[in-house]
Structures are given as structure tokens and as C-alpha cells.
Design a protein that fits this description.
2 copies of one chain form a homodimer.
Chain A: H1 37-52, H2 59-65, H3 73-76, H4 80-106, H5 116-136, H6 142-148, H7 155-170, H8 172-181, H9 189-201, H10 203-206, H11 215-226
Helix pairs in contact in A: 1-2, 1-4, 1-6, 4-5, 4-6, 4-7, 5-8, 5-11
Chain A binds a DNA duplex (16 and 16 nucleotides) through helix 3.
Chain lengths: ~230, ~230
DNA sequence: CCTACCGATCGGTAGG
DNA sequence: CCTACCGATCGGTAGG
């Protein structure tokens, strides 16, 4: 999983292939493969922001979580707010990427033959299942932070995040419209979208991977709740 | 609306009815009817906690909002956390009270004749409409704070709030069970409850009283989304 | 309820 | 990326 938000960091192998092993200071096993210390910070921040909230998490907490001193996160990020934004942007980038992959694997065929009724239903199932995975799957702190810490973004950051959210939801809308057209969804698409995402997003508040139902169970329940026939 | 959380404040008229007008310092129009300065603090805290979040709101903000000096809120509340708890507890107390009244006015008749199918549906409609009112109606900051600031409660406070929430939801469960039994709800009641509350509670994030649909529209949409037939 | 105050913590920076 | 540090702010308290 690539955690870098921008690609401005120099890649290890540069253009001219020089054979001579440069005098790069040797690293211990724990220390090597840095160069994405930035990514470590983002991951640690995501975990802490989710646990305690943005305002209650200090940059010192985050630094300590990756073994840095209190001032060092500011070598990688201009401000605490920029770190929050990096968490959210990386979360959405990754979620959109995974969603595209999931759809590819599901072998989409919407707007095809007359089977579109079954097909739209199957697609929603895939989308919901993926959404649960992104929110509740192993090591998914990014999207919960994105969902619940909007308040701390600047107006400009909000605009960008809103754009990414539109990208994420872009693939849902035609599915909902097809379901509405075929009578499997009785609620106007615009409000249906908001209510359905609410039902799903709220699961972050109560889902317990150790006890409650599985993500498959959740998906079945959601389908049964929203879809007619 | 009574905002006092405990009734420990002395009432104005005491046991022995003395005719003589006591030398109570005269108050201007703005100042009179205090004695619930405590209530003022709770209302101001609710508004600010909702706007900026608990951690980002200072006790000085709250004090200033009611025209007090920075140290004065601590005359009324032991700590900032106690003030948060007072907001939530008052919110739930009021919501439960209003819910009972709403149900009384709706003239319940569940588990009556064979009309229970229509009746269960109508009851859910009433409950949903009331829930939207409590979350999104004029001056309702208490429940949104309760929904989104759990993290800042102590374990003991959480237990009490969970108990109040159970009271609030107690009346929903038989309705959902009746709907499930009659085939109007296809989703297992336990998960249905969580998903439905999620869909409703999330509206706090996007509802705009000035633009979007009315609370009635929301209620119709939710019913159409959840209920079969 | 105000005045005056305290210790702790926080985001962030200079300079290496 | 560390050291050393700063100004600001915060929750809370004593004493009236």
C-alpha cells in the first residue's frame, strides 16, 4: 500500500545506472526501507486521529508513535492540519483505487441486456461490501477519520475532499438510478444516496470485528433493508 | 423547556410563606429569571460543542457566550467533562419525554386487531419523524452532541448514557419486530435497528434547513427506503 | 459569580 | 531528523 501523498520524494534508483554502491549510511533492519517515514507518520496519525479525535491528538503523540522527537513531524508536514489532510486524501485515493479494482473483478455489465435488473442489484451488493471493507477492514483508519473529522479541514481542503468523494460516489449513482427505474428502490435517488451512506457510515460507531456479524452479514442485511422484490 | 439537570437549586418560594418582600437585589429585564444560569451554560455549551467539537471548545468560549468570566463556569460544573455530560443527559431526557408525548398524541394501538400491519407502519413513521425533529429541529444541538462526542465521556458516563439510549430505543424495537413479522421489513431486527438509526443520525452531517428537503420529505424518503409493500 | 493566578500542554520554529 | 526553546492557550483553583 502506497502511503505517499505526493510523489516528490526521490526514488532510490535514479536515471543513470551507476554500479558503484554509494556510501549511503548502513541501516539496521528496523530502520531500513524508510524514505516513507512520511507514510509512517500518516499511518500513525490515522490511527490516533481515529482513536482520540484530531483535536485531542497531539503532534507529540504522533511523533512518539513512530519513534520521532516532538519537532520532527514538522520536517515532513507544514502543520498538524496538513497531516490530517494527508490522512484523508490518502484514504480516499486508496478507496477509489480499490473500488475500481473491485468493480473490474466483478465484471460489470450494466446497461447490457434485459438482465439489468439482477445486474444492478448485484452491483450494489459489490459496492456496499467494498464500502464496509474500506471502513471496517483490517487497518482501515483513514476513511473513518475522513468521515468524522471534516470540521477540522480548511475550506480549500474541504473542496478537494468533496471532489474525491464525488469521484467515489460517481459509480453508485447510475446503480441507484437503475434500481429506482426497475422498482427495486422506492426512495428518490438523491435522498436514497444520503440515507444509504448514512446507514453504512454509521457502522464505524458500533461495529466490533470480534463480536458482531461479519462484513458479509452486514452486506446482506443492508441489501435486505434497502432493496425491494 | 427545563434545562436543569439536577433539581438541587433552591426554588424561589420556600416553605413558610412570608409576605414581606425580601431585599433581593432588583434585576434588569435581561438579568432576571436567572437561577438557571446553569441552563444557560448547558445551552451555550451544546451550541459550541456541536459547532466546533468538545475538544476544540474552551470553557472560556462557553463562559463568554453567556457573559461570564473564564473561571465562573466552574462554580456551576466541576469540570468541562461534567458540562458535556449535562448537555447529553439533558438532551436525552428531553428527547425521551418528547417521544412519549408524541406517541401519546399519535394514539397508539399496536397489538390490537388485524390492522396491526398498517399500524406498525404508521408508528414507525411517527417515530422517524420525531427523531428527525429532535436532531434537526430548531435549537436542537443536544442530540447531535450526544451522537458525536461519546469519545469524551468517562466509562461511568457512557454507561448512564447507554441506559438512556436503551430507553429511547425501547419503543422502537417492538415496532420493528411487528414490521418484520408482517414482512414489511426484510432485514433482521437487530441489524435493522443499527442501520436505520445510522441512516437517520447521519442526516446531522448533511441536512440544511434552508435548502434541502423538509423533515416531512426526509421521513417519507426513509419510509420508502426501509419498508416493503 | 469575579479576580488573579498556576502548572501543564500544545503547535510550531531556529539552527544545526 | 534532533535539540532547545517560545508564545499562546487551556482547564482549573483560591479567596473573596
Amino acid at each position: 500500500m502506497n502511503l505517499d501523498v505526493d510523489t516528490s520524494m526521490p526514488s532510490t534508483a535514479s536515471a543513470t545506472a551507476v554500479a558503484k554502491p554509494r556510501g549511503r549510511p548502513r541501516k539496521t533492519l528496523e530502520e531500513r526501507e524508510d524514505g516513507n517515514r512520511k507514510g509512517d507518520l500518516i499511518a500513525a496519525a490515522a490511527k490516533l486521529f481515529r482513536q482520540k479525535g484530531f483535536d485531542a491528538t497531539s503532534t507529540r503523540d504522533i511523533a512518539a508513535a513512530v519513534g520521532m522527537r516532538s519537532g520532527s513531524p514538522f520536517y515532513h508536514f507544514k502543520s498538524k492540519g496538513d497531516l490530517l489532510y494527508a490522512v484523508m486524501a490518502e484514504g480516499m485515493r486508496s478507496a477509489i483505487e480499490k473500488q475500481q479494482l473491485t468493480l473490474k473483478n466483478a465484471n460489470i455489465s450494466l446497461s447490457n441486456s434485459e438482465q439489468t435488473k439482477q445486474e444492478a442489484r448485484r452491483l450494489l451488493h459489490v459496492l456496499i461490501r467494498h464500502h464496509f471493507e474500506v471502513m471496517l477492514g483490517a487497518g482501515s483508519d483513514f476513511i473513518p477519520v475522513m468521515l468524522y473529522e471534516w470540521r477540522s479541514l480548511t475550506p480549500r481542503q474541504r473542496t478537494t475532499m468533496a471532489k474525491m468523494q464525488r469521484d467515489y460516489e460517481a459509480v453508485w449513482l447510475p446503480v441507484l438510478e437503475a434500481l429506482f427505474a426497475s422498482g427495486q428502490l422506492k426512495c428518490p435517488v438523491k435522498l436514497a444516496r444520503l440515507l444509504i451512506f448514512g446507514a453504512l457510515n454509521w457502522s464505524v460507531q458500533w461495529f466490533d470485528a470480534k463480536k458482531e456479524a461479519s462484513l458479509d452479514d452486514l452486506t446482506e442485511a443492508a441489501m435486505a433493508l434497502f432493496i425491494k422484490d
